[in-house]
Design brief:
This protein has about 425 residues and is of the alpha+beta class. The chain is about 20% helix and about 35% strand.
Length: about 425
Amino acid sequence: MGKKVVLGVELNRLFMQVSYAPEGGTPATLHLPSSEQLFTMHLAIGRERGNSRWYYGQEAEKVFATRQDDLARNFLDKLGEKTRIGGEVYTYEELLHMFLGHGIRMAMHSIEEVEKEAAEIVAMTISAEPYPEGQMSLWDELLSGLPIPRGQIRLQRHEDSLFSYLSHQPEKLLGYVTGVFDLTDERMVAYCMEMNPRTAPVVTSIERDDDTGIVKKHHYDSIMEQDRALEALDTRLAEYVDEFTKGRIVTSLYLIGDAFTKDWYSVSRHHMCRNRKVFAGNNLFSKGAAFSAAEWIWPGTEKEDFLFLGKDMLRCNVGIQVTEDGEEGYLPLLDAGEHWNDAGAQTELLLSRPDEIRLLITPIFTGKTYEETLVIGEQEERPGRAFRYRLRVSMTDAATLLAEIMDEGFGQFYQPRFAKKEYTITLRE
């Protein structure tokens, strides 16, 4: 046992980056052990033929620079496929599993160097780009057996990491709109985070633009081609900044990626800095993931202050009407703003009307409550409130609710008539 910490991991097509946070502390991005270099491992793994040793990251790229058949790089889009390395066939899931395990062990060593004591990782959030839509069972398998138990690992979108990071920034930096331009890869992705300060909690949404038209190649064929391309790109980026900010009160812009560390965008930089703060850096997503992991394990006030309506967030409140001591009341089951994978509740009910249970569903945008009826069917005759059921609700995705009703019987007087009934409900916004 040691100091309890959480990890935040950015995992994209090019690299893995790790930040961490102790309980009550602010996330910090790790450096490689005994180095001033940020903990950013290129997504590369290699092995020599007839040798059991594996090489990772930049070391693998260097060792196998002239032996590409023994190296796998940038393979996040290839999950579900196979490749041959060191004369043997591997799935890309196996390679990613080994890569993540190696990265986690290095991170633990680096944390212990910084903290001067042993560390216990109690949770890890991976900010994945691309997000593995429709591949969760595959990811469940490859995330099992790592140095961190599967139940303490969660995946989230970059949008969720942005929200976690920005919602923890000083209030003076938060306004109606915050923009994030990500040029980690060759194509720029833009995010627009809008907050409504007139609501309590502050309703927050993030829109993503994958079609910005901003493309900066990692390599150009000649200096002349590079100079011409970057001059045109600077002009196009300035136009995009004007389009992005038109009609919006944009209080701050965040520039992500090594591309923004170069001095090629002087014209567009002038457009960015008009009446707003501009920040540049490369660790926003990993820090945001660390904030998210910390909030998951050590809940703070941010969940109360903000209501984030991302793609994976529940957009409805779900509950039931109950009667207690002769007075009617509302029993909440699921809350809008929860990640669908975390949303779940169960309760025991004594019913006087045994043939149905009515769920009350309130979409956060309209505020208009509607009912969904779980029809149980005719039951045997019993006295009032002698029907004891257990109701369990969960989400199978952000819009699909699974309700389960179990007949608990009533002591020695009435035996259960059925084990379980299931209902699938598509929530309306």
